[in-house]
Specification:
By secondary structure, the chain is mainly β. The chain contains 2 helices and 5 strands. The longest helix is centred in the middle third of the chain and has 5 residues.
């Protein structure tokens, strides 16, 4: 399952790989801000309490109205 967290001002955090290591990639409005090796590093950029995890529900693809029919 893909995971990502969003925060204020267009901030998005996604797991990624960089130089053979797993990192938490911070993007703001689609541009990479930093690759963090720990949650403590992420906290230098954003208050962790401001983050919300985005969860993709199974079968929730495409237009929601099509699923309601």
């Amino acid at each position: 399952m893909d995971r990502r967290w969003v925060g204020p001002d267009g901030l998005e955090i996604v797991p990624a790989h960089h130089a053979g290591r797993q990192v938490l990639r911070l993007r703001r409005h689609g541009l990479v801000v930093a690759d963090c090796l720990s949650v403590e590093e992420v906290a230098r950029y954003v208050d962790l309490a401001d983050l919300c995890e985005v969860i993709a529900l199974p079968g929730a693809r495409g237009d929601v109205r099509a699923a309601v029919r």
